[in-house]
Amino acid sequence: MADHGGGGGGCCPPMDLFRSEPMHLVQIIIPIESAHLTASYLGDIGLIQFKDLNAEKSPFQRTYAGQIKRCGEMARKLRYFKDQMSKAGLTPPVKTEAKCDISLDDLEVKLGDLEAELIEINANSEKLQRGYNELVEYKLVLQKAGEFFKAAHTSAVAQHREAVSEQAPEESLETPLLTDQDSKTDQGKQVKLGFLAGLVPKAKAVAFERILFRATRGNVFLKQAALEEAVVDPSLGEKVEKNVFLVFFSGERAKSKILKICEAFGANRYPFAEDLSKQEQSITEVSGRLSELKTTIDAGLLHRGNLLQTIGEQYEQWNLLVRREKAIYHTLNMLSIDVTKKCLVAEGWSPIYATEEIQDALERAAIDSNSQVGAIFQVLHTKELPPTFFRTNKFTDSFQTIVDAYGVAKYQEANPGVYTVVTFPFLFAVMFGDWGHGICLLLATLFLIFKEKKYSTQKLGDIMEMTFGGRYVILLMSLFSIYTGLIYNEFFSVPFELFSPSAYACRDAACSEATTIGLIKVRDTYPFGVDPAWHGSRSELPFLNSLKMKMSILIGVVQMNLGIIMSFFNALYFRNPVNIWFQFIPQMIFLNGLFGYLSVLIIVKWCTGSKADLYHVMIYMFLSPTDELGENQLFANQKTVQLVLLLLSLIAVPWMLLPKPFILKAQHNRTHQGQSYTPLEGEDESLQVETPHDSHDHEEFEFSEVFVHQLIHTIEFVLGAVSNTASYLRLWALSLAHSELSTVFYEKVLLLAWGYNNIIILIVGIIVFIFATVGVLLVMETLSAFLHALRLHWVEFQNKFYEGDGYKFHPFSFASLGDEDE
User: Fold this and answer.
1) Coiled-coil regions in this chain (predicted)?
2) Which CA distances in Å does 405 have to 177, 194, 755, 807?
3) What tens digit of pLDDT does each residue of 184-196 get?
4) Are 480 and 429 in contact (CB under 8 A)?
5) 211: part of which helix (H) or strand (E)?
């Protein structure tokens, strides 16, 4: 049933798409104590569109600005929780229909406590993690730098032993000029070297070394060793490849320079003892602290995970509650407050059928809120144009969306969506006629419909979401494509004798080739669609071109006539006889006097088998209407009929153009004659609503504007009758293109690969054929035919009657709340 259909007591009439639901402007006076609950109940039924009675006020000047601010702050906290859950790798909570029992005030306190706790946990965790990363780096520095010192110590011991073993060294080039004994004489002048250890990013290591050398003029000794694995940088929190460095220097001045360079390059420095035993002791201490920190961090993460899990279980309910409350207060801000500040006044549009349901919701709200006074519901009289509301279901909604994309119907205007349900997939199928391709589309659509419940709750990509939204349109498109494919007798461009054998056979054994030469009719005419004998014959293309071209014109003339007839029903419904006599009748005469007559000639030619040239008939109907038709005559008195039709078509043009502006001017003068005094209103005068639209009734009638508008409208129709009829030839062109592409893929790919008698070539050919069929024929051709069918409906069909200048009915409804806050 309909989305908004349903309401107790059978108050809803059957769903009618032809005209929008009758609407009325209502006024509701709500006591202040029951305002919140009333808005909540009205949001549940979603059948009233409130008008903003405080349009002149800024958002901050409105009554419930503070409550909206509170809701916005709670929504921010919920977004923060969602962000933390996604970072922790928790799956998004499944949407639940269970209502939240907690009040908004309690939820505000709870969310504040949870946010404070989570922020504290995150801060502590970040601090501990930073300390842990620093200790990891410290341990690596101790290990790598310790290796430097061990290697140096081993080398020094080895040199000392060598010096002791050589008691009397011989003089050589390698003998030092100053012996140990000489150096000991000046021990007071020895310099104590200092050193710094740490880690520097590997990418900056070369520049770091160069700057150190230049800044100290080469008076440093630098040792570096690359780490095998990247380490987490304590300040960045990201993995970075680093080198351990050990730099020796002399003097405080050099030290201060090195410290500044380390800071500039983001090098982390760590304390380091020269004594080997102290180094081992430091490594042991650091390892112990690391294990303790790891345990503490794991416990913190477990606690954080449990907290987020608890939040996740009720996140959707809290989020729904906050969004509902925010929507309620947004709606209450649109209401005007009484001077006594004891009641709120609401105005809005609602369908007439929903009156009983709205009144029932108002009564329930008054009872549940223990209000001493109930809400007052009354209907207002206005000249303002109501919004347009069609009650659709999941099947008709996608077709209505196609129409609304062109323009929302004016209130109570005839809705082209009723006919679009059938004509749109049919016109698509005329261009896409192949029952093999239609079956492929059908299977894909049935899969989407089968997975409907699953996909409707998921976020899909843009293209997938559009495809899923139009699944029922594609379903009908595929079914109609199978039907037209059977008429064209094409299954991936291959004909089949489905309904009976071909009506044609060879005269003798010599005509085994697929050609019309030598074929004679031996059976009854093929019962449904095109005889398979036509496919592959020499005359296939001329025959199918003639058939599809004439069929396109017939379809176009029928649909354009339907559009003009719809304008008649619009004029009849809105009691506008001027449009009937001076728009509908001359348009019908002009269109059918020319192209309706052409359609009749096509049908007569098919029925009689005449060889008359219809191009010649139509051209000389204008150029030489009095000439004899000769062999192009299809029926008796054809010349007289043509003269009458041509004369009527010529008369129809000034008939459309001239009378209507003068009649409208006369009507305007008669309507506003003697309006110096206005009639007294009845007792409902207080309910009369002033609207901006009323002022237009008293404006000066601009005859020149009306005449120019009618002139443009007449020229557009006359030229459009020709161009729109020609536009329907796209049905023939795209059908031909689809058929020929399908034939090329079948003959030049599949059959060619089959002819090589090689299994590898055959497999490659089948793969290429599948990809070409899916990519070109099932995707690109489907999209192309869809767009062309869309154009035929929007331009050729709807411009005959559809104004599309209305505005859509957007009721206050919790069902339409978006997933994201505004």
Assistant:
1) 104-131
2) 98, 79, 50, 12
3) 445 545 556 788 8
4) yes
5) helix 205-215
Q: How far apart are CA 624 and CA 720, in angstroms?
A: 24
Indicate the DSSP class of residue 800: G
The model's pLDDT over 34-69, given as tens digits with 9 standing for 90+, comes to 999 999 999 999 999 999 999 898 988 888 999 999
> If we measure between CA atoms, which residue out of 354, 462, 511 comes closest to residue 26?
354
372 CB neighbour count, 10 Å cutoff: 8
Residues with Cβ within 8 Å of residue 800, at least 6 apart in sequence = 560, 563, 564, 566, 567, 587
The torsion angle over the Cα atoms of residues 787, 789, 793 and 796, rounded to 10 degrees, is: 100
What digits encode the pLDDT tens for the residues 380-439? 999 999 999 999 999 999 999 999 999 999 999 999 999 999 999 999 999 999 999 999
Residue indicated by tokens 């006919």: 419
Residue 761 makes CB contacts below 8 A (sequence gap 6+) with 753
> 26 forms bridges with which residues in the sheet?
348, 379
Q: Which of 243, 255, 311 has its CA nearest to residue 82?
A: 311
Q: Is 415 helix (H, G, I), strand (E, B) or coil?
A: coil
Instruction: Give whole-number Cα distances, 738 to 57, 339, 489, 778, in Å.
Output: 59, 70, 13, 10
Look at residue 639 and give its three-state secondary structure. helix
Structural tokens at position 144: 């790598």
**Quick one: pLDDT band at residue 92, thresholds 50, 70, 90?**
low
d(CA 153, CA 149): 6
pLDDT score recorded for residue 740: 93
What count of Cα atoms within 13 Å lies in the side-chain half-sphere of residue 81? 28
Structure tokens at 143: 């290990």
| pLDDT confidence of residue 51 | 94
Q: Looking at the DSSP assignment, which residues form a beta bridge with residue 378?
A: 27
DSSP annotation of 173 reads T
Give the list of residues 6+ apart from residue 173 with CB closer than 8 angstroms, or none: none
Instruction: Tally helices (H) and strands (E) across the chain.
Output: 26, 13
Q: Residue 10 above 50 pLDDT? A: no
Query: So what's the pLDDT on residue 688?
Result: 40
Look at residue 822 and tell me whether its pLDDT is greater than 60. no
Q: Widest CA span of the chain, in angstroms?
A: 144
**Residue with the two structure tokens 């699944």:** 471
| pLDDT of res. 185 | 45
CB-side neighbour CA atoms (13 Å) of 310: 12
Burial class (CB in 10 A: 0-12, 13-18, 19+), 510: exposed
530-544 pLDDT per residue, tens: 999 888 788 888 899
Contact call for residues 121 and 303 (beta carbons, < 8 A): yes
Q: d(Cα 683, Cα 706) in Å, to the nearest integer?
A: 38
Is there a contact between 17 and 390 (Cβ–Cβ < 8 Å)? yes
Query: CA 538, 541, 546 angle in degrees (round to 5)?
Result: 130
Give residues with Cβ within 8 angstroms of 340, minimum separation 6.
none
Q: What percent of the chain has pLDDT over 70?
A: 89
Q: Under 8 Å CB-to-CB from 398, ≥6 apart: which residues?
A: 469, 470, 471, 472, 473
